[in-house]
Amino acid sequence: MKILIATKNLGKVKEIEALSEEFFPLEEMSFLLLKSFEKQIEVEENGCSFYENAYIKAREYSRFYKMPVIADDSGLVVPALKGEPGIYSSRYAGENAKDEENIEKLLFHLKDIKEKKAYFQCSAVFYASEKVVFHTEGRLIGEIIHEKRGEKGFGYDPVFFLPEKQMTLAEISLKEKNQISHRRQAFYSLFEKIKQWRENESF
Ligand code: IMP
What we know:
Elements: E1 2-5, H1 10-20, E2 30-33, H2 50-65, E3 69-77, H3 99-110, E4 117-127, E5 133-144, E6 160-162, E7 167-168, H4 174-180, H5 182-201
Parallel strand pairs: 1-2, 1-3
Antiparallel strand pairs: 3-4, 4-5, 5-6, 6-7
Bound molecules: inosinic acid.
């Protein structure tokens, strides 16, 4: 089976490929990347939720390239800030904002707020046709701290504290992060669904 991974982020591609090997023998599954196509399309992420954005991407790429597609959308949710930065996580401080600028804005808004609970959310969607669509969610719960800690990871990792590990996501190894991340949880459940669908289909 061939699936297109609708992301330009190579780190994500590697994570998805590695996870797929836990479900399917290598010869059964191959992934295509957006950059392998001559014709490129821009898909506007104009949904109102992580799910809608992931769904729009999966559906549009699948219709255009005529093949099954996996897409995801993720971000940081802070309940005390009414869910901000949410689907605007990557551009919280403006279009093309740097990670540090997004973090600065987040800490500024949280400076007088005691409740620091937050979570990363990931929605993953598999779209093979109008009738074959699977959707899963993953969530990693933690707290926002006021000083950046650690050099690893990306995005909001340096201020995302894991109470059970007493470390931020930027302090733990990438391997450890990939075992607990919101993306892993969402993609793991997605592959479970794809596997079940494939098994039932062959009867
Ligand atoms: P995307 O779904 O990969 O486009 O991620 C959207 C944005 O959410 C990123 O640019 C980050 O700001 C934030 N984000 C998503 N996942 C993570 C994570 O694992 N660590 C830190 N920030 C993340």
